[in-house]
Amino acid sequence: MMSKRVLLSLTFFAAAAAAAPAVHAQDAAAGTSGASFMKIGIGSPRALAMGRAYVALAEGSEAMTWNPAGLALTQQREFAYSYLRYIQEIDSPVFMAYAHPLGRTVFGANLGYITIDGFEVRDGNGVPLNGTEARVQNGFFTLSAARSFWYEKLFFGASLKAIHEDNDGTIHDTIVGDFGALLKPNSYVTFGFATQNFGSGNSRVASVTRGGASVRLFELLTISMELSNASDSSARLGLGAEFMLPEDLLQVGQVYLRVGFHSTDDLGRVLEDDRSGLYPLVGSPKLSFGVGLFTAQAFGYGIAFDYALVSLGSLGTADMLSLKMKF
Q1: How many C-beta atoms lie closer than 10 Å to residue 196's C-beta?
Q2: From CA 20, how far away is CA 38, in angstroms rounded?
Q3: How far apart are the C-alpha atoms of 94 and 115, rounded to whole Å?
Q4: Residue 128: is the preceding peptide bond cis (ω within 30°)?
Q5: Higher per-residue confidence, 22 vs 309
Q6: Element (H or E) spanning 63, and its range?
Q7: Beta strands, E only, the chain
Q8: 16-19 contacts, C-beta under 8 A, 24 or more apart
Q9: Which tens digit of pLDDT belongs to each residue from 70-91?
């Protein structure tokens, strides 16, 4: 029988998969790294809605999660809060980020917390151990700095990140670094690159490399592409599109509609009881959707609201919302 200590050291992704019999893992390396919760994308509904194709679009306080170079695009002080409602009763009730520009240099910090109550413990055959539950508490804290160069066409950023895992008393603390770059040869095309979670062994946290580009067309449509590769999984392709409704048709500000595609393993079919009125539109785990609203007229501040909806097949549906203030 697998010991309780070993079971608790597994990531909550593995636990969620065990709880959903329709899921079929395809990647042999899945679950071999710690701190898998870092790959969820906590803090940016826009990124999730656009299929995680975000390395070339990341900007402001949320850039610290995807590409720290995008922090240098911050023009005003910025505070953001987001809430993630994930699968299998997993949620992240706290994510906060702050960005502070000082000329061409911008400093930022963020913190996130994710928890699982009533974590079910199973033996080596997947049989629940009756009366045995565990509590999982994970979190991270990031300090970042970024700067623009070459007449604001080239941007570099770096982060130092502390990651904490507490699997029912089995605690791991890890310090890792991120580095990112953005190249904007003109106002329409952007290229992005980021390497994340370096400086620690793969068993503690998976390193991730991202590369991609974005193109803005007709002032209203943005298309993005990203290829990412984590050390504990195969390469993933992300594609995203964002359409801004013409401002002359609206009075509230800027409204964005988003859709994305992200290649992923087979997560099974959406269970009958979990199907919403949008099924099968929101059915494939490869597709994601979102909406955003920005207004510069609320209380004298810039206020942004973003929402993303992502299907994870038979595991369920996840959504995230965020509120951002620029001042």
Answers
A1: 26
A2: 21
A3: 10
A4: no
A5: 309
A6: helix 63-66
A7: 78-85, 91-102, 105-122, 128-149, 154-167, 170-183, 189-198, 208-217, 221-230, 236-244, 254-262, 287-298, 301-311, 317-326
A8: 16/87, 16/88, 16/90, 16/315, 17/315, 18/122, 18/126, 19/88, 19/120
A9: 999 999 999 999 999 887 677 7
- CATH class as words, domain 4-232: mainly beta
**Measured between alpha carbons, how far is 93 from 75 in angstroms, rounded to an integer?**
28
Identify the sign of the CA torsion 123, 202, 164, 316: negative
User: Which of 47-56, 166-175, 267-276 shows the lowest per-residue confidence on average (mean pLDDT)?
Assistant: 267-276
Decide: 226 and 210 in contact? Cβ < 8 Å. Answer: yes
Domain map (residue ranges) of the chain: 4-232
SS3 67: coil
DSSP 155-167: EEEEEEEEEEEEE
> Considering the entire predicted model, what is its pTM?
0.82
What is the C-alpha to C-alpha distance for residues 320 and 327, in angstroms, rounded to an integer? 23
Task: Check: CB of residue 209 under 8 Å from CB of residue 236.
Answer: no
pLDDT tens string 120-138: 666 666 666 665 666 778 8
In 3-state terms, what secondary structure has residue 286?
Answer: coil
